[in-house]
Amino acid sequence: MIDISKDKNIRIYAWAMLAILFAAQLVMSAGTYAWGPLAPFFRTEFGVSRTEIGILTSALYIVAATVSIPSGILVDKLGARAMLLFSLFVMGFAFIMMPIVGSFVLIALCAAIGGLGYGSINQATTKGIMLWFNSRTRATAMGIKKTGVTIGGGLAAALIPVIAMRYNWQACLFIIGGSILTVAFIAFFYKEQLDTDQSSVVKIKKNIRPKNMILTLVSNPVLLSVIIILPFISFCQTSFVTFLVLYLHEELDFSVQIAGICMTIAMVAGTAGRIVWGMLSDRMFNGGRIAPLLIISLISAASVFCFAILSKNVPLYVFFILSGVMGFALIGWNAVIMILAAELAGPELAGSSLGIIATAGWAGMVTGGPVFGFITDRFNYFAGWMLVTLVLLISAAGFIFIYFYVHEKKRVIAHVEG
Q1: What confidence category does residue 113 fall into, taking pLDDT thresholds of 50, 70 and 90?
Q2: Given CA atoms 172, 173, 177, 183 in this order, what sign does their dihedral have?
Q3: pLDDT at residue 307 above 70?
Q4: Could you tell me the CA-to-CA distances from 90 to 84, 118, 184, 189, 219 in Å, in that order?
Q5: Domains and CATH numbers, the chain
């Protein structure tokens, strides 16, 4: 890991490397968020059902989830640069091929191939941040990098309908694929170390077996606790993002436009939250990660509970404010917990750690929408939001356990050494 606090040139180089990682996250996220805006054009072109449209997203995400752990191990074995280039070229090629194949089934197959790339990007970029930034700056760097997800999704939602109406849906996919490949060529300039005496990179043990790497990680009780907690938080985020607009429209009689404004506010606040929570973790909490995550869980639980009990007679600005608070916490947590997992594993196994974490996160994302939807169908929206509140409180309890476990362990070590 390079200590960027010691040399101005190293600091500049580190932030330049972060710019490449951010660009990679942005263009690849734009690709994963493209299916919603493209759905009307696909239905017109191919006559497919809504379920078949959903298969496109599932094809990419299922493959991404499947390769998360193996790709994390490869990141540790081969390095962040190699897997960053692999991720970009595979996904870029897949999107370039989609308008060429011209068949919906083959487009879905290309989406699955794209998942091979997307399933590696978080591990590669996080590994890069672990090596370029120290404990007082890396959560901020991670927060900036993770805003690429929401910004990329926002750009896709805003630009794809315009481009598709002006030209066609094929042009959208060519632009996305071309953008990803452009960043791939820029990524050739990415380095994992500087050739100076001031830099150092963790030496990866090439002879560690994948099975032993995984066992080493899950034998860490704190990291194992984080892996268990993560699906709960992902579940809540997915439920919130999926059903916010529908709840406001169906239950409180908001217009689709007003409900959409609430979602926009939540997404903007979530983007800001990813940076702000990272900065707070680095600076206010001196590199501590557990306390911010506990605070995020409690704020999320309190805001979701308040949201559930509001009536349509409440002034509109209250919904705007609460949407922002929920987005700031429920969408903004991502960077801090990713850095926590990477730090617990250490730079040598950061990629493998993120592979496991990504898989745990996918589990929560996959179950969040269907379970919340089932609860609201079986009972009502209030029951659904109460479930989310309960799950967030369980997450908070998990972080409380980790907090006291870590402090007790430090106390025992200090006692023994004293």
Answers
A1: very high
A2: positive
A3: yes
A4: 10, 9, 10, 18, 33
A5: 1-192 (1.20.1250.20), 216-418 (1.20.1250.20)
